[in-house]
Specification:
Shape: globular
Number of strands: 8
Largest sheet: 8 strands, parallel, barrel
Structural class: alpha/beta
Oligomer: single chain
Order of helices and strands: EHEHEHEHHEHHEHHEHEHH
Strand content: 5-15%
Number of helices: 12
Distance between the termini: 6 Å
Radius of gyration: 17 Å
Bound molecules: 1,3-dihydroxyacetonephosphate
Helix content: 40-55%
C-alpha cells in the first residue's frame, strides 16, 4: 500500500551548536537542495540564529524554528524566551519536552503542557518529544511511559490542535548514542501513540498529528525509518549538523519512503 501522499518532515535539531556565521553557511548550502526535495525541511536553530536564518530562508522551502521556550506570555524570568519573541524572530515551530530539557533542566510534563498551549496561541507549531529511558525500555515500561507523557503533555488541548501538533518518539537510549531504535520498535511505538491520540482526540483528528522518529538517525538508516508505516518524518540531531549528511537525508525521495507496509 503506497502512502506517498503523506507529508514528510525532515527536522534538524541543532541543539547548542552553530554560531550565526556557521548557521548561515550551512543554510546557504541547504536552500537549493530543499527546493528540489519532496520533503518539508525544518531546522530548529539556537535562539541567536533564528532571526538571521528566518530572513535568509524567506520565500524558500526551509522552515526555521526553536528548540525551547517559556510558557509565560512575558515576565521577570531571567534568561527565558517567550513564544511571541520566537514568532517575531521568524520561528514557525518549536521543539518542546526534548529529553535533554527533561534530564538536565528537570522539565515536567505539566510544564511542557503549559508551553504547548502557549505555542499554539502564538501560532508556533509544537513538536512534542516523548520517549522512555534505557531502564524503562529494559523493564518493558516504554508504552506506560509514553502514555503518561502524552496524556499529561497534551491535557486539556482542543482537538483542533491536532492539525498543528507534531509528536516525536525519541527513546532516550537512542539519542546521541549511535544505537538507533529498530524499525520494528518505531512502528510499534508510533502506532501506539496514534492509538492514544485517537482515544484523546478521536480517530479523525489523531490522523492529522505528524509522528516523527528521533534517535541516532543518519544517512544510512534514515530511509528504513521513513518507510515505517505511520511515520511522517524524522527529528535528527548530530547528522543534521553536517550539510553533506543532512543533504543525503532530505534527498530521500518521498515515493521511496512509503513503498513498504
Ligand atoms: P541524535 O540524532 O544526535 O541522536 O539526536 C537526536 C535528537 O535528540 C533529536 O532531537
Amino acid at each position: 500500500m503506497a502512502k506517498a501522499s503523506q507529508p514528510c518532515f525532515i527536522v534538524g535539531n541543532w541543539k547548542m551548536y552553530k554560531t550565526i556565521e556557521q548557521a548561515t553557511e550551512f543554510i546557504e548550502k541547504i536552500i537549493p537542495l530543499a527546493a528540489n526535495s519532496s520533503n518539508t525541511v525544518m531546522i530548529a536553530a539556537p535562539y541567536t540564529a533564528i532571526a538571521p536564518l528566518a530572513k535568509k530562508t524567506e520565500g524558500t522551502k526551509v522552515v526555521i524554528g526553536a528548540q525551547n521556550m517559556n510558557d509565560a506570555s512575558e515576565g521577570a524570568f531571567t534568561g527565558e524566551v517567550a513564544a511571541v519573541m520566537l514568532q517575531e524572530a521568524g520561528a514557525q515551530f518549536v521543539i518542546l519536552g526534548h529529553s535533554e530539557r527533561r534530564l538536565y533542566f528537570h522539565e515536567s510534563d505539566e510544564f511542557i503542557n503549559k508551553k504547548i498551549k502557549r505555542a499554539l496561541i502564538c501560532n508556533l507549531r509544537p513538536i512534542l518529544c516523548i520517549g522512555e529511558t534505557f531502564e524503562e525500555h529494559q523493564q518493558e515500561q516504554a508504552k506506560a511511559k509514553v502514555k503518561e507523557q502524552l496524556e499529561k503533555c497534551l491535557a486539556e488541548l482542543d482537538k483542533s490542535a491536532c492539525q498543528q501538533l507534531m509528536v516525536s518518539y525519541e527513546p532516550r537510549w537512542a539519542i546521541g548514542t549511535g544505537l538507533a531504535a529498530t524499525p520494528k520498535i518505531v512502528q510499534e511505538m508510533t502506532s501506539y501513540c496514534r492509538e492514544l491520540l485517537a482515544e484523546m482526540f478521536g480517530e479523525k483528528e489523531a490522523k492529522k498529528v505528524a509522528l516523527l522518529y528521533g534517535g541516532s538517525v543518519n544517512p544510512d538508516n534514515a530511509e528504513t525509518f521513513l518507510q515505517v508505516p505511520g511515520v511522517n518524518g524524522l527529528l535528527i540531531g548530530a547528522a543534521s549538523l553536517d550539510p553533506d549528511s543532512f543533504a543525503k537525508i532530505i534527498e530521500i525521495p518521498q515515493n521511496v519512503q512509503k513503498q513498504v507496509v
